[in-house]
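#onboarding

Welcome to the new folks! Below is a worked example of what a typical request in this channel looks like: someone posts a single protein sequence, and someone else replies with the predicted structure as tokens. Don't worry about understanding the tokens yet, we'll cover that in week two.

Example request:
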Amino acid sequence: GGIGFQQILNGLTGGFRSNVSKLVILITDAKPGGDDDSYDVTDDNFLHTVGTAAGVANVRALILSKRNNLLNREYRILADDSGGSFTQDINLSPTTIISIIQDICS
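Example response:
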């Protein structure tokens, strides 16, 4: 999730247009694990770095997670540092995704 988000920021999917809302939706059912599939403080530090860069670039992470992350932990860091949102939904419901987008865009 975090590495993929960083790749999007770095232009993997092309550039963002100017003067528009820039949103990246991350849907997950797992802890961040970086490139070693093991979650630790290194992952939180990475998410702070990527989240801060996203905030500067005005790109918001909308995180929909099966897990309920604690404040300042895991993917909640990416959402908070980018100015996005974190929503926990055990079902990862498409209705929830639509609601998140509508809430942040209104």
